[in-house]
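Hey,

The postdoc asked me to send both predictions to you directly instead of through the lab channel. I've kept everything plain text so nothing gets mangled by the mail client. Protein one:
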Amino acid sequence: MIYRYCGASGIQLPVLSLGLWHNFGSVDDFSVARQMLLKAFDSGICHFDLANNYGPEPGTAEENFGKILRQQLQGHRDEILVSTKAGHDMWPGVYGTGSSRKNIIASCDQSLRRMGLDYVDIFYSHRYDGVTPVEETMQALVDLVRSGKALYVGISKYPLEQQRRCYEYLREHDTPCLVSQYRASMFNTLARPNLDLASREGSGFICFSPLAQGLLTGKYLNGIPEDSRAAKATGFLQRTQVTEPRIEASRLLSAIAEERGQSLPQMAIQWLLHDERVTSVILGTSSVHQLEDNLLSIEGPDFTSDQLSRIEAIISRDGLTL
């Protein structure tokens, strides 16, 4: 595994982290979840990314992670970096969502209980809710660190102006923003200004959804397979998003990957990491085999200038951004 320093801090993260957004909840096969988590740890992935609402059902990804930690990784806590978040819908009532101090503090307490931990390494504000003052949310994060419930804090998906204000507030209160997390892939380059700002401000940067919710897995080069994610009636990738421009772009990108001796997802992940300001890319896998395939992304050859130019020309086409 390769490790990079997280922004201006002394913390190193593996360039590949394991995300528990999907496939670790109560509706999923626990034995497969356990196998993936242990394979990741044995492969040098020491950062596990969670949120209070991950499941389904919400909260069960944290519960299952805590169970695996106790049963198989007891004694390895100090070798592992655990991050979790709060801000999206979690429990009924007006206090179970958003970025208020009440929600942030209560969510952290609940997450610690579900995972059976005394503290998390990173606690994120999962989103800017458009209502709560940034100062209120950031002070809640500062207080979590001062109380010993979190070692570091981060932000996720904050718009550019609010992102800047978060950095300023946290720095002024001696709790600098360790890391910023944004959606980024070949089909979503909208976070480039956020990466620029994070780099200038000394915050690490983590990319999630590197395969564009599956569009860059290579499954959709010839349309929508009946057993694919997009074929389901519910989920984050819908049939309407598997458009001809995205299919065509995927085919062209796949051809470049083949030239490089890689699969399309391997190249897509390595392309994000080509920018050394990116601290880590979060993998979302459904099997040990898929995890093993993704792990090979860091073994690919360097990109040539011609390959980078061709990739940029493809992904700059209209109609690709998710």
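Protein two:
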Amino acid sequence: MNSIEFLNKTLNVKIDRPIGSSHPDYPNHIYLVNYGYVPNTISGDGEELDCYILGEYKPLKEYTGKCIAIIHRLNDDDDKLVIAPENKNFTNNEIKLLTDFQEKFFESEIIRSSGYLEFNKNIPELSVTNLENSLNFYKTAGFKIEYDRPENKFSFISLGEIQFMLQEISTNDKWDIAPLTYPFGNGINFQLEVTNLDKIYNSFKNANYKIAFDIEENWYRQDNKLLGNKEFLIQDPDGYLLRFSEDLGEKDV
């Protein structure tokens, strides 16, 4: 039975290991959330599909809720459903934190429904003069459009966990409190941590975008250690300064 089929469905769960109880074979292993199974299902291990119940903090015997995610174990044929109240959602980080008491023993990934988007807590919105030109630039770095509103000349873009909103300037834009002159965003640079710096750099070079500052290695002191980055600077079509950075680890001062 494919566990993905249960995403976004409301399910009835039997709780056989309520919050605060011990694992039947490992008495020191305490369940920090309610844990159960969906009756009349079969998981990869031949047993019923197991479920973590999030958002409920008292021991339960049964529960009805929505499947918001799948924890797919990479080294064990036993997917776990993540169940939550109908009006409640949990981020991937929250799911990892709440299920780590058990999932820390396995390699896994969290699968969400198609179109799921986890918003950062801080998402810059850049006013741009020409949305198409800006999108061509950011796509060169590997950004993708998560969603857009063509009628408003607006796009939400992402590269891994990096997120920007791009809004083409209009004559009645309430967000612009003063006239904009090039370079936009003068006085700020955005540090964008990536894992493929050289690829992004070469992509810009091959597309004939001007690099503001070539790749260099820098070490910045934090207390008694140095944090290393390989980085380069580039301005987008409106002059916003982007610092693409790849982590080099740390060393003692």
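Summary for protein two, as requested: The two ends are 55 Å apart (CA to CA).

Thanks,
C.
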